[in-house]
Amino acid sequence: MSAAYLLDTSSFIHRAFHASKERPTFTKDGKPNFAINLFRNMLERLQRDHKPDYLIAACDVHAPTFRSELYTQYKAQRPTPPEDLISQIDGCMDVLMTAHVPTINFPGYEADDIIGTLAHRIVPIMDVVIVCGDKDMAQLVEVYAEGGCTRVWNTGKNKMLGVGEVLIEYGVLPHQIVDYLSLVGDTSDNVPGCKGIGPKGAVELLKQFGNLQAVLNRSSEISSKAYRHAIQNNREMILLSKKLVTIDTHVPLPDVSNLYSPF
Predict the structure, then answer these.
(1) Which of 115, 125, 184, 243 sits 20 to 30 Å CA-CA off 73?
(2) Contacts of 248 (CB under 8 A, 6+ apart)
(3) Mean of pLDDT values over 87-113
(4) 48: phi then psi, degrees, rounded to nearest 5
(5) DSSP bridge partners of 106
(6) How far apart (Å, rounded) are the C-alpha atoms in residues 28 and 239?
(7) Nearest CA-CA partner of 9 in 54, 60, 79
(8) CA atoms of 113 and 249, how far apart (whole Å)
(9) Cβ atoms within 10 Å, residue 92
(10) In the chain, which segments carry CATH 3.40.50.1010?
(11) 4 has which bridge partners?
């Protein structure tokens, strides 16, 4: 079956930058190009090693999103990117253009949402592989009864995650990842989660109750006093966190079927 690879462009650029900044290179006029060079190499390696039938790059828009409107502290802890990273972003985008990789963004949404929406559109036609190191992408992993599957290639660990690998990695199934992150939070995005509940506690609760709503509705049944009080005292933050970590798979993108149509 053919496979479409969906690239989280920002994640790929940041990985290239941080992996190469200790060995900086510059153009003849003194501009840094080390991230651009590694980004190009990473893209070529992706195409060579995985041989995707289609490759689409999803990009963030530098503007408020529905998440930042829900929670003003969303990603607020992130420092301003260093100038030598900012100055290389356009060069990385040029690499995509030269390689004829189509790029897509949409105001008000993150690249994650674009990837989620594209994955749901494409998977009836062909398999989908999401290229990203973020754990929230695991919620999109799925095997469909009518054929086709969505997997995540974790670039940080160089590991392909299917349903079984997600269970091994996080202790929960893909359809429980949103509930899991709603409890543990996500420090990289400043998602609060539930204070007092870590990965171990989240896995225990979801194994016992099955889903987050049952955890909230039946919190009085939680045997651990610490966990019970944590859930009961942080209900609003848990529900807010769920909204923040849930990838929107219904972004109103225009028809982009020409980018991945096998016909």
Answers:
(1) 115
(2) 66, 109, 113, 116, 117
(3) 96
(4) -75, -45
(5) none
(6) 52
(7) 60
(8) 6
(9) 24
(10) 3-169+247-259
(11) 54, 128
Question: How many CA within 13 A on the CB side of residue 256?
Answer: 24
* Tokens representing residue 46 in the block: 């992706």
Rg of the chain taking only CA atoms, in angstroms: 20
Asked whether 27 and 79 are in contact (CB, 8 A), the reply is no
> What is the C-alpha separation between 255 and 114, in angstroms, rounded?
13
Separation in Å, CA 2 to CA 56, 134, 155, 179, 208: 14, 24, 21, 31, 38
Query: In CATH terms, is domain 172-245 a member of 3.30.460.80?
Result: no
For CATH 1.10.150.20, the residue range(s) in the chain are 172-245
Averaged pLDDT for residues 208-235: 97
| Cα–Cα distance for residue pair 152/167, rounded to 1 Å | 13
Give ∠ CA 206-129-250 in degrees, rounded to 5: 70
Q: Tell me the whole-structure pTM to 2 decimals.
A: 0.94
Alpha-carbon span 117 to 244, nearest angstrom? 16
How many whole angstroms separate alpha carbon 103 and alpha carbon 129?
A: 16
Tokens describing residue 161: 């995650």
Q: Using a pLDDT cut of 70, give the percent of the chain over it.
A: 97
Give whole-number Cα distances, 32 to 44, 75, 95, 163, in Å. 20, 27, 15, 40
What tokens appear for 21 in the block? 């900044």
Neighbours of 89 (CB within 10 A): 18
- Of the candidate CATH numbers 3.30.70.20, 3.40.50.880, 3.40.50.1010, 1.10.8.60, the domain formed by 3-169+247-259 belongs to 3.40.50.1010
For residues 152 and 157, the model is more confident at 152
